[in-house]
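Blinded run. Sample ID left blank on purpose so nobody reads anything into the name before looking at the predicted structure. Input follows.
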Amino acid sequence: MKYWINTITKEHVLGGIEGGFTQANHGSDRVLKKLQNGDAMLFYSGKNSFDDTEPYQKFTALGIVVDDIPYQVTTTDTFHPFRRNLQFLTIEEAAIRPMIHELSFIKDPKHWGFPFMRGLFEIPKKDFEIIARACGVEFDDFDE
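Blinded prediction complete.
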């Protein structure tokens, strides 16, 4: 089992929750191919919507991958993104700032937002558990 963070706006997170899926990195399948059935994914939303200028900076969802390979959909004539199916858990949103110094994937607290620029990326289990707890989810032995 692996642990991931997907960086997308809250508006897109809500659409994914409603549809039971996630997309990443502008619809690319490159990183989605690395996901395995049963992997856990947290969603970080730096903004509420793409056009929003105000920072949001919260973890907004948590889901478990429930399929085996990416699949492609047509959303417009020119956009055909790849997706993965997720089962979403009910969580409380959690602001990132109180946990910046606890998370090992953040190497420089002064530039804490840098890792999120990667879109979808893997994190250590310990970091996942810190964030999940902040979202009101306890995982004593999450990967068993």
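Unblinding after everyone has recorded impressions. The mean pLDDT is 93.
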